[in-house]
């Protein structure tokens, strides 16, 4: 076993640590289950560190001059360069050794000087502790990411920070490169040399926006794989989700003043509450169409309004447009046109906003990669790079073919497979599904992986809902489900209801969290259970169809009972009872039902009910 190397995303606001083992990359969490460590450090009266991360952030307002955040904006830069940045920070930034920016924190003896590297080192040390706790062994090496535009001084300062934290930075990797690696772009090619690919990495966070255009080419000499070249970067170090929060706050304050009079003033604490609340509303509107804003103003007055996604998008549009301007500039600088960009990767929490995804898709003319958590993707990629360097990434799950079948859950808990195991990638499949209940307006699409026939024996890859289908009888809506696996193994599942044009989709990386051993085990189990699985699947299908038949016959019989001979009615009812008992048995335990007998009972009911249908049709024609 080679020494484990950590992958670290050392962010301006938050930092994360990840590792990549035989299950692929994953982020590590602290004892409370948090992956994100706020990049915040608070210093005490002797200049010592008293809190790091979440705890330091929680009391930042009480200790404005002792709490250092956004130190990454200062790392490796001269005090004169960052005058404007420094002016917006509540702590004091002063020239340190060799004119490099440092932070002056108040102490009981006067003040102490702290370098941004030292601040970063405390954050790195926290990440190291989190990793060691979870891995239960010591670690001393890491791959650390930095923005593509960091210069040599800033990269060196990042290495220094690592050394102070007891970590050797075995490589400093560009953030957009790491994000690409997380999606398997530019991995050591398992299928020989590939054509050069161009990737746009769109990174929209809380306070900064970056766009990078990368080119990946096969390079025999590059250790462990392909060569990533940054063709161009652009962005804005003062543009992010925070601006959108502020636009919501401004709207609320304006409306409050209009409604309750101009005299109303907001203390800073109320503004802070308003900020959290504006962010909450923004986040909620990434999932929902509307949310309610409610602010108690004291003396029984309450400001209340509904904020729709359209309202939010109107507020966000100018900021999103600014990101697009940068995108166009980066494209121009790189000498690429939009058509030559092969992939677009989304990074940063603000890319969860539907307007952002839509606009990026519009500008680049392709669906961006969104399968991975946009907060984690850089750390995951750093871990992939770490594993490549450690030499223990055997790339077990880089397949030219699908290791396991992919499908969706159908009524009754069975799995309909759309793409079969061993299909070569890229692969595409389409299938038509419908609703199972009258008037159903939402359909859940549950994406499954595995060889067995039932949901409970397969792996869930994710689910989504197609909403807003016009109410129609069961079986009438036509929902087309499409599976598309691209050559990097990213699966895109989309569902469209034909009549209404309603559409929804999800992206997943099916190979994540899966080991070669597991693939083998799943395959072996599917062989072992093939017979019983087929049996259960057949019973489930019979159950679904029989239930639909019963419903039909019950309705028709209620209408035409009086027109039929008593003996016919009695015969039909007896057959219905028999089928009902099979349904009940199938619900209790599908495996124990004799599928042939069930089939015969259903056939017998179908035959016996012919006169019922004839009468019902005749009656319909008459009326
Ligand atoms: P980052 O700097 O990448 O951690 O991104 C943080 C920013 O993403 C903040 O402005 C958050 O409000 C924003 N954000 C996080 N989740 C969502 C979401 N679901 N919808 C919209 N914005 C989000």
Question: What characteristics describe this protein?
Answer:
4-stranded mixed β-sheet, Substrate Binding Domain Of DNAk, Chain A, domain 1, alpha+beta, Nucleotidyltransferase, domain 5, 26 strands, Substrate Binding Domain Of Dnak, Chain:A, Domain 2, single chain, binds adenosine monophosphate, 37% helix, 3 domains, 6-stranded mixed β-sheet, 623 residues
Give the total of beta strands.
Answer: 26
Helix content: 25-40%
Q: Helix tally? A: 15
Main structural class: alpha+beta
How many separate structural domains? Answer: 3
Q: Which geometry do the CA atoms define? A: elongated
CATH class of the largest domain: Alpha Beta
* CATH hierarchy: architecture of the largest domain: 2-Layer Sandwich
Bound ligands, named by name, code or SMILES: adenosine monophosphate
Largest sheet entry: 6 strands, mixed
In words, what does this structure look like?
The protein has 623 residues and is of the alpha+beta class. The chain folds into three domains: 6-239 and 318-400, ATPase, nucleotide binding domain (Nucleotidyltransferase, domain 5); 406-512, Sandwich (Substrate Binding Domain Of DNAk, Chain A, domain 1), CATH 2.60.34; 530-622, Substrate Binding Domain Of Dnak, Chain:A, Domain 2 (Up-down Bundle), CATH 1.20.1270.10. Strand 5 and strand 6 (49-52) form a beta hairpin. Bound molecules: adenosine monophosphate. The site of adenosine monophosphate (AMP) has 17 residues, from helix 6 and helix 7. Adenosine monophosphate binds at residues 13-14, 205-206, 240-242, 279, 282-283, 286, 348-350, 352-353, 375.
């Amino acid at each position: 076993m080679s020494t484990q190397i950590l992958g670290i995303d050392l962010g301006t606001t938050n930092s994360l640590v990840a590792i990549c083992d035989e299950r692929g990359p994953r982020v590590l969490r602290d004892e409370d289950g948090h992956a994100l460590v706020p990049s915040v450090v608070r210093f005490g009266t002797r200049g010592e560190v008293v809190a790091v991360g979440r705890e330091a952030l929680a009391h930042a307002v009480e200790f404005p001059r002792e709490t250092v955040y956004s130190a990454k904006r200062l790392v490796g830069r001269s005090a004169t360069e960052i005058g404007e940045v420094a002016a917006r920070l509540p702590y004091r930034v002063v020239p340190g050794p060799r004119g490099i920016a440092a932070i002056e924190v108040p102490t009981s003896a006067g003040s102490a000087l702290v370098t941004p590297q030292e601040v970063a080192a405390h954050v790195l040390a926290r990440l190291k502790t989190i990793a060691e706790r979870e891995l239960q062994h010591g670690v001393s090496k890491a791959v650390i990411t930095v923005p593509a535009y960091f210069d040599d001084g800033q990269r060196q300062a990042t290495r220094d920070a690592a050394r102070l934290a007891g970590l050797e930075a075995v490589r400093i990797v560009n953030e957009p490169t790491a994000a690409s690696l997380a999606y398997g772009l530019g991995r050591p090619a398992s299928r020989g040399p590939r054509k050069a690919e161009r990737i746009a990495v769109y990174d929209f966070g809380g306070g900064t926006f970056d766009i990078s255009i990368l080119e990946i080419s096969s390079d025999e000499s590059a250790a462990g794989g392909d060569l990533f070249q940054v063709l161009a970067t652009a962005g804005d170090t003062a543009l992010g989700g925070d601006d959108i929060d502020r636009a919501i706050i401004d709207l609320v304050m304006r409306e409050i003043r209009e409604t309750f009079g101009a005299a109303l003033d907001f203390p800073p604490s109320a503004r802070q509450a308003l900020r959290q609340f504006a962010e909450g509303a923004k986040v909620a509107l990434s999932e929902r169409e509307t949310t309610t804003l409610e602010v108690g103003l004291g003396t029984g007055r309450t400001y209340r309004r509904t904020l729709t996604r359209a309202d939010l998008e109107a507020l966000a549009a100018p900021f999103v447009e600014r990101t697009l301007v940068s995108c166009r500039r980066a494209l121009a600088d790189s000498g690429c046109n939009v058509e030559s960009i092969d992939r677009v990767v989304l990074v940063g929490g603000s890319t969860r906003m539907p307007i952002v995804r839509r606009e990026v898709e519009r500008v680049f003319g392709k669906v961006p990669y969104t399968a991975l958590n946009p907060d984690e993707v850089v750390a995951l990629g750093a871990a992939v790079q770490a594993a490549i360097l450690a030499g223990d990434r055997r790339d077990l799950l880089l397949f030219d073919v699908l290791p396991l079948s992919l499908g969706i859950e159908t009524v009754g808990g069975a799995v309909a497979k759309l793409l079969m195991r061993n299909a070569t990638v890229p692969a595409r499949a389409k299938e038509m599904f419908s609703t199972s209940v009258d008037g159903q307006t939402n359909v859940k699409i549950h994406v499954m992986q595995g060889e067995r026939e039932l949901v409970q024996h397969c792996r869930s890859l994710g689910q989504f809902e197609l909403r807003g289908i016009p109410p129609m009888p069961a079986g009438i809506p036509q929902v087309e489900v499409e599976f598309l696996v691209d050559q990097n193994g990213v699966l895109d599942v989309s569902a469209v209801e034909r009549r209404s044009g309603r559409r929804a989709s999800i992206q997943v990386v099916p190979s994540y969290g899966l080991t070669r051993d597991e693939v083998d085990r799943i395959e072996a189990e599917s062989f072992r259970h093939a017979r019983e699985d087929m049996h259960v699947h057949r019973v489930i299908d019979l159950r679904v169809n029989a239930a639909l038949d019963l419903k039909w016959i019950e309705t028709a019989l209620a209408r035409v009972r009086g027109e039929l001979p008593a003996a016919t009615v009695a015969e039909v009812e007896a057959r219905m009872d028999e089928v009902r008992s099979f349904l009940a048995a199938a619900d209790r335990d599908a495996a124990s039902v004799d599928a042939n007998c069930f089939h015969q009972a259903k056939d017998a009911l179908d035959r016996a009910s012919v006169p019922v249908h004839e009468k019902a049709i005749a009656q319909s024609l008459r009326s």
